[in-house]
Structures are given as C-alpha cells and as structure tokens.
Amino acid sequence: MKILFFESQKAAKLVPQWRELQSCKAGLITAFSLFSFAALAQEPVLQDSVKTQEYKLDEVLVQAVRANSKTPVTFSNVSKEELAPRNLGQDIPTLLNYLPSVVTTTDAGNGIGYSGIRVRGADATRVNVTINGIPYNDAESQGTFWVNMPDFASSAENIQLQRGVGTSTNGAGAFGASLNVLTDAFKHEAEGEISNSFGSFNSRKHTVKFSSGLMNDRFELAGRLSNIASDGYIDRASSDLKSYFLQGTYVGNTTLIKALVFGGSERTYQAWNGIDAATMASDRQYNYSGMYTDAEGNTRFYDNETDNYQQDHYQLHWNERLSDVWSTNLAFHYTIGKGYYENYRDNDTYADYGLQPVIVDGVEITEEDLITRKWLKNDFYGTTFSANYKKEALDVVFGGAYNKYEGDHFGEVIWARYSSDTQPDDHYYDDYAAKTDLNVYAKANYNVTAKLNLFGDLQYRTVNYKANGVLADPVDDTFNFFNPKAGLTYSLNDKNTLYFSYARGNKEPRRDDYENGSTKAESLNDFELGWRFKAGRTNINVNTYYMRYKDQLVLTGALNDVGAPVYANSGDSYRLGLEADAAIALTNEFTLRPNIAISDNKNIDFFNETEEGVQNLGKTEIAFSPSVIGAVQLIYRKSGFQGMLATKYVGEQFMDNLESDNATLDAYTTTDINVSYEFKPKKIFKAVILSGLVNNIFDEEYASNGYMWGDPYYYPQAGINFLAGLTLKF
C-alpha cells in the first residue's frame, strides 16, 4: 500500500502492517467465527420454499449504496461478462479505462502493480470505494491501492461507478465518484475454473476458482487462489502478487447469510519516482529507485528497494426479509494490514535517524549510506446496517455505519555503512493514529405518478481523527457533516427519461494535509442534469454537471519533502462538464459503444505563494483535469467469438495549478484489440476459452501521469504489448 505520509522519503507510499489486537477486536473476530458457523449450520427448510427465494446479491449487499434507473444520479454498470475477456492480469482501474470521464495510470507502465484511477479529474483519494458496501479507502490517506487485492476482478460479480457525489455511501466522502464492487454471487450448480495467461515483460497470471453449488439447496462454498507476476515495462518495476478469496453462503426461506475472507500480499519493486523529460527522451524505461553510489564511486541499484504488504479482510453479511415490505441487512467487517517499504538512503544525515556520529580513521562521520524500513501496522473494523421498506410507490432505505481505524507508524534503520549504533527494535520515529467514522442516512424514491419519481437522501456523518507526529502539536479534530441530496426522474415515454439532482458533499483532511498545513474540511455542491434513452438494444446517456467546491484540496503537482503529493486549499473552484455515452446495436453482431466527456475545470482567484509575496493568478486550470476525454469500442460477437477494437483519447492536462509552460502532460491516443473464443467440448470441460489482448497497437509513446519537483517528472507507459490466456471451465 503506498505510503503517503512518512517523514523522510521522496516518493513515499502507504504500507500498512498488523497491529496487535486489543480484546474488543479479538472479540469481534471470535463473534464473526461463531456467528458464521452457527448461521451456516442452521437446519435447512423445505426445498420448494427455496425456489421462491429470488434474492439477488445486488439487492442484498449493495442496495443501500447503489443507484438504479429511478435514481437521478450519473452512473455506469460493468458486469462480470464485460470484464472477463480483458481480465488477463491487469488491475481493476485498467479494466475500467473505457468508462466515461475515466483516466488510468500505472507506475510500472503495463497495468500490473500500482495503478491509479481519476474520474472527472478527481484522483483515488476523492473516489469512494466500497466492497459489498464495506469501505475500502485507507482511512488516513483516503487512497485506494488495488495492488493489495490482485486479481480481484476475478471475484467481482459487477461494478458500479457513480460519477459526482452520487448517493449516500459508507466511508470516505465522494468528491469525484463512488466505485461499488459486488463480489461473486452464489452458484446453484458446482463448477470449477482454471485460468492462465502470459504476456509481455514476463507477465503471467494463474487463477483457480471453485464453487460447490448449493448443497442441500442451502449452502455454498466458493473460493479462488491467484498469483500474478510481471517484470513491468519500467526497469526493475517487478510485481509478485498473491491473493485468495473464500466465501460461504447460506440461502434460507427468508434469510441470506454470506461470510467472506479474502486478501492479498504484494511485493513490488518501487517505480514511483518517475523520470525527468531528458531521461524520458533517451530511455523511457529508466528507473531512479534504489540508485546509490558505492564506496568506489560506481552507480548501482539496491536489489531490495521494494514495497511489501499484506492485507486480510473479513466480512459477514446477514440479510433478512421480515415481511413482504420490510427487509434488513447487517454486516460486520474487519481488516488487518501489515507491511513496510525498504529504502537505500544515499548519504543521509545521522541526526535524522537519532544516531550518534562515529569516528573512522580519525575523521568524524555525521552522514553515510543507510537502509531503512518504514512500517505501518493497522486495524480497521466496524459495522454497516440498513433497513428497506418497499411498498407500491414508496421505496425507502434507512442505514448507516460505524467504523474505526487504528494505525502505528514507525521506522527502522536495518543497516548503516559505518555506524553500529542500531538495534533491530529501535525506531527513529514512532507515531500513532486513530480515526472513528459514524454515518446515518435515509434515502427514498417515491413515484408521484407513473411518470414522475422523486428522490431524497439525507446523511449525517461525524469523523474524529487523532494523531501524533503529524504536527508539533498532536491532532484531535472532529468534523460534523450534513449531506442532503434531492432530485427527480421524469419519464417522457417508454424510451426517454430525464433526471435532475442536487447533492452536497463534505470531506475531512487527510494526514498529509495536516502535515502541509491544510486543515480545513472541503465542501461540494453537485448539480446533475441528464437524459436516458433506451429503445431495443440501443442505450444513450447524456448528462451535464456543475460541481462547485469550497476549500477544495487540489493537487498542486508537487511532491513534499517525503515524496507525497501536495494538495492545497484552492478557495472557490468548479468543474463544469458534458458527458455522453451510448451502446448502439449496429447489427445482430456489431455493437458500437462511444463516450465523450468535455469539461471546464477552474480554480477561481487562485493565489500562489512565492518568495516575492502572494500572487493572485485569477482563474487557472485545476491540475490533472483534461478538458476532453473520449473512447469508442467496436464489439463483434458471434457463435462464441468476441472481438473488440477500442480507442481512448485523453486531452492535454496541467500538472500544477499555475498553468506553467513546462507543467503539461501531452494529449495521447491509444488503441487496443481484445479477442476471445469460447467452445464447449463434449467431454471433460464445460467450456474452453481462448483470450488475447494487444494494448497500444500503434505503439504510442505517452505518459499518463506526472508531478512537479521543481522540474516536471513523468510516468511513461508501455508501447505495444500483449497478454494471452486460456481458461478451462468444468
């Protein structure tokens, strides 16, 4: 997990580590285990009563945080079937690359390892992510690190991306989008699957899945094991990623219980420094990470300049239908994180690590080469709950969540060239943080007439954050937010629907923001106006949005002295845009899926602090917010064969808020080809699927991300590269 807040590291990233459980957390795990066993051990009811049980997991696990056709918000749904042909090892952000207003990037350059997603110019810290309605964003950095859950797309039933504030959800505030992942639905019949893929840069993915099917028409046990490895496009940007997924499901007459355990471990060679323009022109794959000068003056690279992290998740969901109009959902969750990243520090000062000078050959040494490990051990646990009343014209959900995060931050010197004044348990910094997050909400859809639907959503959220080591004085801040939302949906006829909504969002500062002196909460007023058209196999969605921010923390494009991205409160700012996407059936075999997003993203009266004083730059472009993003997919399906030709365009964008001439990322266009063929043998296997993916077929040289460290630095992405896979289903 990327370390975004340690005290002495350029290009630092968050790396969680396990904290020794206190008695209350041990009790939660015990209760989880006992309840899971007891629930799955209930006496089965009569078989034909099961046939009347038509719950869908979408309704059970995520109905409280998802949008539907009656909800006046802007969203896209992606199914397991849509993900499958491209799911050959790349991370979830890369798999979602062709959605409207989405820009993706990867440190290693080939979609495996550390990956990021931006929606409407908002980065991962502004995108709320939930898994089965459980918050996934890191509580302190508010970021999302998909490298911690490699191959999770193989366990995803479907994904919904809401753009804008969206509906009330759990966890971090949504300031650009909400991404809701629903895990695999239970299977009625037993099945198994073995998938292997190989490709450029020694990339490979190996996945084994199974499902017992419903045993006694009541119980299912399913699981997955995965291993992904790649050398990466960037030099030494290797990844070794392992993950697992196990779930047990009980289906009763009025009860659905689902217990899940999943997690992953990752070991990646660091590639988050990027490269300067001159280096990119001469060697696009160059990697500064791990570089040092040895005693003979030779430039070398440290072999273990790696990020190492493990994360394990426990979820228990209990859905109960109380009557024909009432149903409830209760969930408990617990996440353990542990890990570190290791750095070779070239010629660092002793005093920064609490070490005393040493005398070597009569000369006092006050600085030398060191190797450090920077750790985070954390626990995240809590509950989510909701109740749904649905009768005739009224559909109401009451819900909320209580979550707590506890994390220890500390650093170790594991080697020094001259000093022996280090012990394995010595910490040169030792910080602690705790965060509690409580929210309650009520949302309703009401059909006033057959054509007009009203939507209302009220959320109250309170957040307390305590930390030491962030500022000279410890932090103990509490934020209270009220987030109202309202809108309407009007059906002109069977084919055309209009919607309009207003939503208020508020967001607390991150740990890094406190370090940078930005301690204000942010607020957002989001207005959405849209049109949906559906006729036969043709769907068209067009919407406009106006997102007005107060004290928005925008990326400055710089990194601070520990390598974390720097945000600054920009006062007033806005994002104004038009988005359109469609799925058009040209023939029985050909489908066209274009989308485009055009936007204007501005800071208003932006002030820049310089040595000469404060400059008022007036309106400036918000960093990392291209004004044009477009994509088009041409899909052909016939007799088990599917082919897709897809093109993505991302316009020019600034890497700072000053509109500096040298702080631009050039526009780029990439094109991919994806094919798959499924045939069904008469023996042994139910299906055999061959898949192939060629990325960037025109070998475009481009950088999808960057930052300003005095001069601009870039993250180059791979030229033409491929992945090919074989899946056996039985």
Care to give the gist of this entry?
With 730 residues, this protein is mainly beta.
Shape: globular
* Poorly predicted runs of 5 or more residues: 1-55
Q: Into how many domains do the coordinates divide?
A: 1
Structural class based on helices, strands and sheet pairing? mainly beta
Distance between the termini: 35 Å
What is the count of helical runs? 7
Major beta-sheet overview: 22 strands, antiparallel, barrel
Rounded Rg? 26 Å
| Residues in β-strands, percent | over 45%
Helical proportion, percent range = under 10%
What does this structure look like?
- The structure is a single chain.
- This protein has 730 residues and is mainly beta.
- It has a single domain (23-729), classed as TonB-dependent receptor, beta-barrel domain (Maltoporin, Chain A, Beta Barrel).
- The strands form 8 sheets. The protein has a 22-stranded antiparallel barrel.
- A hairpin with a 7-residue loop joins strand 9 and strand 10 (219-230).
List keywords for this structure.
single chain; 730 residues; mainly beta; Maltoporin, Chain A; 22-stranded antiparallel beta barrel; 7 helices; 41 strands; disordered N terminus
What are the SSEs and their pairings?
Blueprint (H helix, E strand, L loop, with lengths): L22 H18 L6 H4 L6 H6 L11 E6 H4 L8 H4 L6 E5 L8 E5 L7 E5 L2 E2 L20 E8 L13 E7 L7 E9 L3 E9 L7 E12 L8 E13 L3 E15 L5 E2 H6 L8 E3 L5 E3 L4 E16 L4 E24 L8 E3 L2 E3 L1 E25 L2 E23 L12 E19 L4 E16 L7 E17 L4 E12 L3 H5 L6 E14 L2 E13 L2 E7 L5 E5 L2 E14 L4 E21 L2 E9 L6 E11 L2 E10 L2 E2 L9 E2 L2 E12 L7 E9 L7 E7 L1 E6 L4 E9 L1
Parallel strand pairs: 4-7
Antiparallel strand pairs: 1-6, 2-3, 4-5, 6-7, 8-9, 8-41, 9-10, 10-11, 11-12, 12-16, 13-40, 14-15, 16-17, 17-20, 18-19, 20-21, 21-22, 22-23, 23-24, 24-25, 25-26, 26-27, 27-30, 28-29, 30-31, 31-32, 31-33, 33-34, 34-37, 35-36, 37-38, 38-41, 39-40
